[in-house]
Amino acid sequence: MITRRNLLIGSVGAVGAFVMPAYAHDKKQFKIDPKFEPQSVRYFSYPPGTIVVDTKNHFLYLVQSFGRARRYGIGVGKAGLSLKGEAVIKRKAEWPSWRPTANMIRRNPGKYRKYANGVPGGPNNPLGSRALYLYRNGRDTMYRIHGTTEPSSIGRSVSNGCVRMINTHVEDLYERVPLGTRVVVL
Questions:
Q1: How far apart are CA 151 and CA 62, in angstroms?
Q2: Which element (helix H / strand E) includes 130?
Q3: CA angle 112, 120, 30 (to 5 degrees)
Q4: Annotated catalytic sites, by residue?
Q5: Which of 119, 147, 121 has the alpha carbon at shortest distance from 30?
Q6: Which PANTHER family does the protein's record reference (predicted)?
Q7: Average pLDDT in the 123-139 region?
Q8: What distance in Å separates the CA atoms of residue 70 and residue 38, rounded to the nearest whole number?
Q9: What is d(CA 121, CA 164) in angstroms, rounded to the nearest whole number?
Q10: Would you state the pLDDT for residue 10?
Q11: Measured distance CA(93)–CA(113) in Å, rounded
């Protein structure tokens, strides 16, 4: 016999199982490990509305209610290049332009010097389709939560410090969070 409780539990499970396919804007579907697809999970550590970036495990959590969060797979910075602590989203951009930081150019001039004047927004831009700009004490940290043209980097520590997401996933997050959202990077 189907009880109201079993119906509710089944409905929650069905909603949590909904996933969005990952695309790299070249119309080729890229298969990522299913654990990195967006999904609803149990999560109790921070209040609703907080974004928690778990760099060690390559997950970003958007806490939605007490005990629940929307989890996304991410790519993060190489050892020593990631932001740690708290920040706030003070700016959001669709198809953002990008310019490597002075530190990026200094670390790898052969790769980044040619982009010193910037790259306009669009499908070939390293920031992907959306960017959430992280600020601390009113100042830009130069770290972003953004899309990527390299979906194979999800689940890895390969970036210059920013948090990378599949473009369709960062678009979903972008629509869910307002300016002023608290971000905790573990």
A1: 20
A2: strand 130-136
A3: 80
A4: 146, 162
A5: 147
A6: L,D-TRANSPEPTIDASE, L,D-TRANSPEPTIDASE ERFK_SRFK-RELATED
A7: 95
A8: 7
A9: 16
A10: 42
A11: 24
**β-strands 51-54, 182-185 pairing:** parallel
How far is CA 96 from each of CA 84, 177, 179, rounded to the nearest angstrom? 23, 17, 16
pLDDT in the model for residue 1: 44
Q: What is the pLDDT of residue 27?
A: 46
Do the Cβ atoms of 149 and 128 come closer than 8 Å?
Answer: yes
Other C-beta atoms closer than 10 Å to the C-beta of 144 total 26
pLDDT at 26: 44
Q: In the chain, helix, strand, coil percent, each to 5?
A: 25, 35, 40
DSSP code for 145: E
When pLDDT is averaged across residues 12-27 and rounded to a whole number, the result is 42
Distances (CA, A) of 133 to 73, 129, 130: 19, 13, 10
**Alpha helix stretches (DSSP H) within the chain:** 4-17, 102-107, 109-112, 167-176
